Amino acid sequence: MELIADILLAAGAIGAAVYCMVLSRRLRRFNDLEKGMGGAIAVLSAQVDDMTKALGEARHSARDSSDTLGSLTDRAEGVAKRLELLVASLHDLPKNAAAPAAPTAEDPLPSFVRSREAEEPLVLRSSQGGAR
Predict the structure, then answer these.
(1) Can you tell me the distance from the alpha carbon of 64 to that of 49, in angstroms, rounded to the nearest whole number?
(2) Residue of higher predicted confidence among 14 and 88
(3) pLDDT value, residue 46
(4) What Rg, from alpha-carbon coordinates, does the chain have?
(5) Which end of the chain is more exposed for a tag (fewer CB within 10 A), N or C?
C-alpha cells in the first residue's frame, strides 16, 4: 500500500512540475517585450505619454484662442455701440438736406503748383492755367 501511495505521489509531483514548466513558458512569451503583451503595454504607455503632452498643448492653444476671441468680441461690441450711435445721429438730420454737389469738368479743383519764375514760393493755379 505504501508503494502505491509513493508511486501516485511521484506521478503527481511530475505532473505538477510539467504543468509549472508549461505555465512558465507561456508567461515568458506573454511578457516578451518584442512580441508579447509586455511590448504592447510598453507601446501603449509611450502613446499615453504622447497623447497627454498633445492634450496639454491643445488645452493651452484653446485657452489662448478663447482669450483672443474674447478680446475681439469686446472690440466688436464697442464698435457696434459706436455704429448704433452714428446711425442714431443720422436720424436727427433733416430729411430734405441737399447733398454736396460733385465737382464738374467746367469747375475743376484748384491745385498748388510751385512756380519757378515767380518770387512767391507757392502759387495757387486752376487747371485752366490762370493764377489766382
Answers:
(1) 23
(2) 14
(3) 93
(4) 47
(5) N
Q: What pLDDT score was predicted for residue 40? A: 81
CB 111 within 8 A of CB 127: yes
Residue 52: which pLDDT band, with cuts at 50, 70 and 90? very high
Residue-by-residue DSSP string for 22-40: HHHHHHHHHT-TTTSHHHH
Determine the Cα–Cα distance for residues 114 and 56; give it in Å rounded to an integer: 66
Give the burial class of 36: count Cβ atoms within 10 A of its Cβ; 0-12 exposed, 13-18 middle, 19 or more buried: middle
| 72's grid cell | 475681439
- pTM equals 0.42
Residues 6+ apart with CB under 8 A from 79: none
125: β partners: 111, 131
